From TrEMBL:
It comes from Nonomuraea coxensis DSM 45129. This is Polyketide cyclase / dehydrase and lipid transport. It comes from the Bacteria.
């Protein structure tokens, strides 16, 4: 069960729950959200492959690969070349369209005044919205985001009875094709 302390002091718990096929075999995950222990929403149906890709991207960025190498501090390094952008956005989907909750992660560039000069940092803003419209926000470094996502993936693989989420991504999950 992954969790984040939010800027308002509340605690967001994110728990992967197995999606099962017609014979009951787990094949992917959905994320259950709780705010301070109370049910908050269910988002991201079949999002495990995307979380796997994100974890890999954050880890590569932290080593200074690709566009992330322009950031001196590894905590400022995130995947993608844009200084600000969306890393993920999971919503609750019903047959009638989006409703319920949302969990998203956007990058923000933040200038900080340090003594006699500006220092520019980047942070991941993880935001959750419940069905009631009340939002929560946690601000994370790339190391904290990596730890959070890796924890979700570890738990997801456990609820999938040992199935490797990375294998799902390699097999073309989300693309309609297999390799």
């Amino acid at each position: 069960m992954g969790g984040l302390r939010c800027v308002d002091g509340s605690y967001l718990t994110v728990t992967p729950v197995a999606c099962r096929d017609s014979v009951g075999k787990p094949y992917e995950v959905t994320l259950e959200l709780h705010r301070d222990g109370a049910p908050y929403g269910s988002v991201g149906e079949r999002c495990g492959w995307l979380l796997t890709r994100l974890a890999r991207g954050v880890d590569e960025a932290r080593t200074g690969r690709g566009p992330a190498r322009r950031w001196a501090d590894p905590d400022d390094r995130f995947p993608g070349g844009e200084p600000e952008g969306e890393l993920f956005s999971f919503r609750y989907r019903s047959r009638s369209g989006p409703s319920g909750g949302e969990l998203s992660c956007r990058l923000r560039t933040i200038p900080l005044w340090e003594g006699s000069r500006w220092r520019v940092t980047r942070r991941a803003y993880v935001e959750a919205w419940g069905a009631t419209g009340v939002g929560m926000r946690a601000v994370l470094t790339s190391a904290e985001l990596s730890s959070f996502v890796r924890g979700l993936l570890e738990e997801a693989e456990g609820c999938l009875e040992g199935r490797d989420m990375a294998r799902n991504a390699r097999e073309g999950a989300g693309t309609g094709e297999t390799r």
